Fold:
Amino acid sequence: MIKRLLSYFLPIKVYETPSKTSKNLEVTWNNGYLVLDSKNTNYSFGSLQRALKKGLKYIGYERIRNFESILILGVAGGSVIETLKKDVKFDGKITGVEIDATVVDIANKYFGLSKYDNLEIVIDDAFEFVLKTKDTYDLIIIDIFQDTIMPNFLFEDYFINRINFLLNVNGFILFNTMALKYKDRRRNAIYKSKFDSNYSVRLYPKIEEHNELFTIKKLQ
Structure:
């Protein structure tokens, strides 16, 4: 409790560990909240949680409550799962895919990820998972970063087409991107152009300063 109070004046680090995918991970008390950070960006329970919460609000909490299945690619500390459970009140099945077992251990120990019901966490590469799964989903959340870097496969046609195939009609994709430079914004513009009239695509720029969110609805 003392560390939590002191964190309103300066961040208090409580845990640090190397990571194969993110180089370094830190759990820190910051302004009264535990957050998970990599070297250069927030991974969970900070600006990232606020950004994804805004995206879920754009889709609509009531609409999401009526979904049956959600796929999350990139779990990290599990902040979007907390939002879905506590704020949205979603009771359906959540499947979370995370490549880094270390970060899942942190999520369980410091952020209570393992306490949630109807949640399956899969340790796997997101690209490999979407190729193998035979399930379909009403909401697919894509939130994959290696520190500030987004893997190229997220923007490639084969991955996009596979995600679209796994999405049920009237379902949504919520895609969190980081746009630090002009080339990132250009990349996002090209990504948006890859969806035809069977999809309704909206781009929300400057969410939490450097984040740009896509919501993509499958119409038919």
